[in-house]
User: What shape does this take?
Amino acid sequence: MAEAADTRATEVTLEEIVALCKRRGFIFPSSEIYGGVGSTYDYGHYGVLLRNNVKDEWWRAMVRERDDIVALDSAILQHPRVWEASGHLEGFTDPLVDCRTCGLRFRADKLEDAQCGRKPSKHPGEFSECDLTDAREFNLMFETHVGPVKDTASTAYLRPETAQGIFINFKNVLQFARKKPPFGIAQIGKSFRNEITTGNFIFRTREFEQMEMEYFVPPDQAPKWHQYWMDERMRWYTELGIRPANLMLRPHDADELSHYSSATSDVEYLFPMGWSELEGIANRGDFDLTQHAKASGEKLEYFDQERGEAYVPHVIEPAAGVDRAMLAFMVDAYDTEEVEGRKRTLLRLHPRLAPVKVAVLPLVSKEGMPERAREIYEEIRARVPAEYDEGGSIGKRYRRQDEIGTPWGVTVDGRTMEDGTVTLRDRDTLEQERVPAAGLGDRLAAKVAEPWSSPKLG
Ligand code: GAP
Assistant: This one.
């Protein structure tokens, strides 16, 4: 009794993703009741669950399945001298121009991507009335003040990357973890940048979450480990269902490199707006540890007992954005098809990423089915994240679960009451099989753990 899929379209626009996120409560524009505040988003129920699953998969790959990386959670507010030593106070800038006519501000190096405030829309500088200032450097760090007195001595910054929290804890972690290079420190947390060019939904926002890992290695091994982490990170995305044709590694040109980097490659994804950075994998050399050692007076090095000498490890850094990864997973999973004359929209998410793994649905709200379905649901949810849904027609409930990416549906019907079996529906194939309700929690937990690849690969 499978529903039959007739045709499939795979293109998705950012507008369709935004609409699905709103419709199904994944993501809302922040402060909406006050008219919104640009490029800031709030995550609703399914957004939180999906986002947590992305982070959990990163923790799994970085820490749970390895012995050489430990976790850290450092503070957002750090000593202002951290940002002096790291080079962010001086170097974390974008070149900006202002238009004296319309009062808008643009990235000087991105004028061809910007739109002038006037109509018909043109690029800044293209109207005869445009009056652009010379470019000047604008620091992207948000400034705030610590304590009751608002003067230069109280200035603090919201961290623009989580990485510095790792470098300033190098000594603490080394002592506690008793590791020797190569070893890593991993952290997930919020970062803040006063971006001038925002947009493309959650792709570039001023408040976002990063998943960063600093891998400390003997200096002569840095190129080898840089390659290793590029391969590893590409594997992570493809294992979680991103189609390889939509991913690529792009080495930075010398003039693109951040002030700390000697080599960086970006993992790029084919977003609806084109190829864009998903994650940066940098060789930071000994820049950060050396800078903090100089500025703090602390020795930030590793003493190699065998060779009887101390050295400053070099650092390989895979730095990913939680929000961008979530967007890429949703874009890659989004699909529509015609089923029995009706359009079906669905997220073909990897089961490990899906916010809900299984929906338990009574066929109708009578004849004891809701009660039996709830019992089955309670048994299943002890093993995998599940949802119970009894409102509306069964078709509508399936569609809803398809849109939030739920891989399996369990339907309790008249036969369940007689022989204890239920139907198990597969989101991707639409096949339904009859299985015993007993032991379904274990069976579904085993299915979630199985290797998976996107059905869009054919
Ligand atoms: N510690 C190195 C670092 O911060 P980055 O390339 O500036 O490097 C790493 O940032 C990742 O953080 C990016 O690849 C992206 O996924 C995410 N990211 C950076 N800025 C962002 C923003 N404004 N909004 C959303 N994600 C952002």
User: Anything to note?
Assistant: Residues 357 and 406 are 5 Å apart (CA to CA). DSSP finds 13 helices and 24 strands in the chain.
